[in-house]
Amino acid sequence: MEPVHVILYPDSVAQDGLAIERNEAADLAEVVVFPGRSRGDVPEADWARADALVTGLHMPIDEEIIDGLGQCRIITRLGVGYDLIDTRAAGRRGIMVCNVPDYGTTEVADHALALILTFARGIVQFHERFLRTEDPIWDYSASPTVTRLAGKRLGVIGLGRIGTAAAMRAKGFGLRVAAYDPYIPDGQELALGVERFHDLRAMLGACDFLTVHCLANAETDNLIDRAAVAAMKPGAILVNTARGAIVDLDAVQWGLETGHLGAAGLDVFPEEPPPADHPLMRAWRAREAWVRDRLVITPHAAFYSAAGFDFLRRKALRTCLDYLEDGRLNNCVNGQYLADR
């Protein structure tokens, strides 16, 4: 039986040739995959014949690409953030843009807390000191960031699914939790038992730990800039598992180099992998004194677990098929632009 639909994966990172997706699609859809990074990596004919796109982390789906989609009806982001998709241009063409907001919630929240615990308990610092010293001193006081968590305040920037999950985990460690999110309804903080701040700078100055969990968009671009870092409580620890564009890397460098920022745990960067010639990265690799033991980097891995990635892949495909087959729409994020057609 000839497949009814064509679903294009233009920038796939799956190592199995999308075996999961091909099996799930069965006779309903032809799954076309490319490990692309730009429009030219995919033949024009495949852009033109795709009924749906499933997009990853690497290729911007801009107006030029969208104009070349001859029969596409839906674009599904393989993940939560959709900042690489021109949702307005898609809406003008009548193309739905959807995401998968319920995958990776527990993994990302766990990762954020793990980074906080890494510093608060000196895990990496102790390990590195012991590993790199020929005659190691059995010294429990060697870490500059070890502290008691109970009674300290964690500030959560963005109290959506992941921010809420992180907040609930933090409370289990005895942290007092504060949150800044101008878009949650009044009273949500009461239901969660967290302190709400309506002024971000005020929260930055009141917290011992900050964890970022908001979307990347024009409003949050460089939200944590040098002024924001300067507004933080001296010695505060910053964690970002959301999007790299939210936190200015130069500001992190300034905070660590001056000693105003206690430490930073970064899973995401404005450019990935981060440029090796950035002064912060050079200092980190050289283990310079001002950054040693105070910067932990992970490779955009907060979302990942085998089970979580499997769920994500299946649901992204199912989101496309539900719409193509039955007109059922899940988690559409560009409805306001569709209404303007």
Could you please say which CATH topology of the largest domain applies here? Rossmann fold
The level of helicity is 25-40%
Strand order of the largest sheet: 8-7-6-9-10-11-12
Mean pLDDT across all residues, rounded?
94
Report the strand count: 12
- Helical stretch tally: 14
Tell me the radius of gyration.
Answer: 22 Å
Order of helices and strands: EHEHEHEHEHHEHEHEHEHEHEHEHH
The CATH class of the largest domain is Alpha Beta
Q: Tell me the span between the first and last alpha carbons.
A: 36 Å
Envelope shape = globular
CATH superfamily of the largest domain: NAD(P)-binding Rossmann-like Domain
CATH architecture of the largest domain: 3-Layer(aba) Sandwich
Write the layout of secondary structure elements.
Blueprint: E1 5-9, H1 19-25, E2 29-33, H2 44-49, E3 52-55, H3 63-67, E4 74-77, H4 87-92, E5 96-98, H5 105-120, H6 123-132, E6 153-157, H7 161-172, E7 176-180, H8 188-192, E8 195-197, H9 200-204, E9 209-212, H10 226-231, E10 236-240, H11 249-258, E11 261-266, H12 279-285, E12 295-297, H13 306-326, H14 335-338
Parallel strand pairs: 1-2, 1-3, 3-4, 4-5, 6-7, 6-9, 7-8, 9-10, 10-11, 11-12
Helix pairs in contact: 1-13, 5-7
